Amino acid sequence: MARLGRSDDREPVRIDDEITRQFRAMGAEVPAQETCSDKDAGGFEVLPSNWKSVCAFLACETQWRVAAGMAGLIWLGLDYQGVDVVLRRSGADEAAFADIQIMESEALVVFGEAQS
Fold first, then answer.
1. 52: helix, coil or strand?
2. What single DSSP character describes residue 93?
3. Alpha carbons 14 and 44: distance in angstroms, whole number
4. Burial of 38 per CB tally in 10 Å (0-12, 13-18, 19+)
5. Is 50 exceeded by the pLDDT of residue 1?
6. How distant is the alpha carbon of residue 90 from its chain centre?
7. How far apart are CA 16 and CA 22, in angstroms?
């Protein structure tokens, strides 16, 4: 018996041509899946509703505040003045800033784990 749904709950659901065809037959359009290129991993999937926020976060990649000490680099967080410039120039909305703060918080956790 074929298993329905995800084969791995950690992986996003992939909408293939057959699923897209079925949705169209019911009168629903499926937005194109967008990916954002990651140089090292070859890419990752982003939900269309999160696309603008992820692109805004990636555009802020040069705005990290970092302190160098005896233990190495300590990631402090994003420089919000620089982030503000990036967001204004890219036309991002207020929701993108809130999303960036969430991604920043999670990135700091990952950076801290890499230090350990």
1. helix
2. -
3. 12
4. exposed
5. no
6. 16
7. 10
Strand boundaries in the chain, DSSP class E: 34-36, 44-46, 64-69, 72-78
Q: 51-79, pLDDT tens digit by residue?
A: 889 889 999 999 999 998 887 888 999 99
Please state, as a whole number, how many other Cβ atoms lie within 10 Å of the Cβ of residue 94. 8
Tell me the one-letter amino acid at 73: L
Is the pLDDT at 2 greater than 50? The verdict is: no
Interaxial angle between packed helices 80-90 and 51-59, expressed in degrees from 0 to 180 and rounded to the nearest 10: 130
Q: Residue 15's pLDDT is what?
A: 67
- Residue tagged 């784990």 (tokens): 113
Domain ranges of the chain: 17-115
